């Protein structure tokens, strides 16, 4: 009888220990995420020979960006922020209602997280993110205050994002990724165009006094398209020589770009002898 009582007592004590341990473990595993009032995003370029003076950093609700080649992403993004001389962006959490808005957006497929995109200053519509997929977690301020000073904390104090500054392989224009030849506009320092242009190649004709014929191929050139004018082999470029003509879209006035007139020629396969991308500099108007 004594043996039976002893065995029951031992069993009771063992089962009691087994019930208390998981509770203690659960308490020890409470979410201990650190909370930071400032987030520093550091960028690190891997191909320094392509380095530009600064880049743009966007934070986006998860799953918002359209990933089709050349597709423009126009709204729903926090930023862009331009990197400083150290390649960094600092984001303060205090009174940051904008950050709160994007974290809680209905478009965010992962509430509490934002995705980071690094682009060139040209690529303001995030057609070609330069970094690999990167997400950052934010922690909601657990308070009963209706409008806390810090709506969300960053779960990390800083993050380094490596990236490579290059177009996708075989692509000449981010907007027109199937282009075979591109005329790309640049603008004199301090000049920001407010209108659009028309970019033509007028095929040369020795019988004309100017040497420039009347037959041409051309398209409208806009800021939304990153000032790229695409041309295709189906435009019958093969074995032709022409002069680049630029007109103001609103006034039809000829624009005498730097180095005007510039001539381009194409081989029998429709490839430009001056290169796949020819740059034109537009002076201050």
Description:
With 285 residues, the protein is mainly beta. It has helices at residues 2-28, 97-103; strands at residues 38-45, 56-61, 78-82, 88-92, 113-119, 135-140, 152-154, 158-163, 181-187, 197-204, 212-221, 228-231, 241-248, 263-265, 277-282. The strands form four sheets. Strands 3-2-5-6-7 form a five-stranded antiparallel sheet. It is elongated, with a radius of gyration of 30 Å. The protein starts with a helix and ends with a strand. The model is unreliable at 1-31 (pLDDT under 50).
Poorly predicted runs: 1-31
Rg, please?
Answer: 30 Å
Looking across the biggest beta sheet, what order are the strands in? Answer: 3-2-5-6-7
Give the DSSP E fraction (strand runs of 2 or more residues).
25-35%
Distance between the termini: 109 Å
**What is the average per-residue confidence, as pLDDT, rounded to a whole number?**
89
**What series of H and E elements makes up the topology?**
HEEEEHEEEEEEEEEEE
Oligomer: single chain
Helix content, binned percent: 10-25%
Structural class: mainly beta
The largest pleated sheet is described as: 5 strands, antiparallel
Number of strands: 15
- Counting H and I runs of at least 4 residues, what is the number of helices? 2
Shape: elongated
